[in-house]
Amino acid sequence: MPHLTPLEIQKHDFSRKWKGFDPVEVESYLALVAEEMEELTRGNSELENRVRSLQEENAEHRERERILKETLVAAQRASEEIRGAATRQAELMIQEAQDSGERLTHNALQRAAEIEKAIHELKMHRFSLRLELQKMLELFGQVIENDREEDQRDRPLSYLTRKPEKGETVG
User: Fold this and answer.
1) Which of 1, 17, 84, 105 has its CA 20 to 30 A from that of 24?
2) Is residue 1 part of a domain?
3) What is the mean pLDDT of the segment spanning 89-113?
């Protein structure tokens, strides 16, 4: 059936027959139907416009939803990457700190061993100097003792007096 418009209904001419319907009543009914049809067409047009508007709005919302989902996925991915990078950085810092601690401990132990060795060497040197000093003191003691003994032996000689011979002057 062809699509009728309100104007077509109003302009339609019916053929005249004898004993047909009252033309005024038919015309008035057709005018009423045309008005109803026009109102329905206008309402239908408004509804179609509203449907189109809602479809566009729905499409915009779907696009926003898609963008939000993509943004959320990208943010989650970025968050995981940042978390992973932070974890790797923290592990690296911990490893560096452990390595540094081990180096410091090793260096401290090595330095402590060097100091202990130096202390031992100084003690040995002190012991050696003490022995040398003790030997020197013993030697000096012996020299003093020998000098005393020599003094004792030389003393009687200094008390000897010689008599001058004739013609010698004591002087």
Assistant:
1) 1
2) no
3) 95
